[in-house]
């Protein structure tokens, strides 16, 4: 759950209003909710904190089996997917705007960077696979802008795997993170833009943007779409590798927008 709405691809963005949200950080540190996205009209979307903080489950593993080459997990949260890829010896990097998420990812043995997807990232234009799991296709509230940004991150012909909403929906709203169901409870931070998009709507938007469908499936009640980038090849592009990613991450001391690696 990252980024900002209506930014040109590659344009740096400030951290979202919820980046330092106490309900989110507290949920990740404890490993459980309750945690919700609350629209300004009071509607609540429950977030699956317990699943995010557990080890990768069979549905996750099926997704990871489809990943190709070096993997960038956008909105990695507490890091279960990055950690699993690292355990397999794969080159993988997770990005998240939450310090608590980055810290937990590193503790699990994954590489993680505290940054928005709309800010400069290591290996731009050279990632083989980008993941948008757990509803992260809604980052920034503008799926078109997010798809364009992901296309710029991927190598030509690269693979995007996105988890879509379990229902046919295509909506954008301003939301806040809350840790209780009380409609009058105070949420941390100001509202931020978010989107919910189902498989049909995502395929329609992706096709209009030049992406090629590489498959869709349902597993464990969750829905997924695989898309191929149609960006033309660049003679100067080189695939990201573990040495390059780690070197980039160790170049600076950890800060609000700098990477963190295991000690």
TrEMBL record:
The keyword DNA-binding does not apply. The keyword Cell division does not apply. Residues 228-263 are annotated as: Disordered. It comes from the Bacteria. One of its GO terms (molecular function) is 3-demethylubiquinol 3-O-methyltransferase activity. Residues 229-244 have a biased composition (Low complexity). Keywords: Methyltransferase, Transferase. GO terms for biological process: methylation. Its EC number is 2.1.1.222, 2.1.1.64. CDD domains: AdoMet_MTases. Transmembrane segments: none annotated. Pfam families: Methyltransf_23. This is Class I SAM-dependent methyltransferase. The lineage of its organism: Bacteria, Bacillati, Actinomycetota, Actinomycetes, Kitasatosporales.
């Amino acid at each position: 759950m990252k980024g900002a709405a209506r930014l040109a691809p590659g344009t740096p963005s400030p951290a979202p209003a919820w980046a330092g949200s106490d309900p989110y950080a507290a949920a990740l540190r404890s490993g459980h909710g309750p945690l919700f996205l609350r629209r300004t009209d009071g509607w609540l979307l429950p977030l699956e904190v317990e699943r995010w903080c557990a080890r990768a489950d069979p549905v996750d593993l099926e997704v990871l089996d489809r990943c190709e080459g070096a993997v960038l997990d956008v909105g990695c949260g507490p890091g279960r997917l990055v950690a699993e890829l690292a355990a397999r010896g794969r080159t993988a990097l997770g990005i998240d705007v939450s310090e608590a998420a980055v810290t937990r990812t590193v503790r699990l043995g994954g590489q993680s960077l505290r940054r928005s997807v709309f800010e400069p990232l290591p290996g731009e234009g050279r990632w083989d696979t980008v993941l948008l799991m757990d509803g992260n296709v809604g980052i920034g509230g503008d799926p078109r802008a997010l798809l364009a940004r992901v296309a710029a991150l991927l190598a030509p012909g690269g693979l995007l795997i996105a988890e879509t909403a379990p229902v046919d929906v295509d909506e954008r709203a301003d939301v806040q993170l809350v840790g209780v169901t009380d409609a009058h409870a105070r949420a941390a931070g100001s509202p931020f833009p978010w989107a919910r998009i189902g498989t049909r709507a995502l395929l329609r938007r992706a096709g209009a943007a030049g992406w090629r469908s590489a498959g869709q499936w349902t597993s464990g009640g969750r829905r997924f779409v695989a898309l191929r980038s149609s960006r033309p090849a660049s003679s100067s592009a080189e695939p990201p590798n573990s040495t390059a990613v780690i070197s980039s991450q160790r170049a600076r001391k950890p800060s609000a927008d700098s990477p963190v690696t295991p000690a």
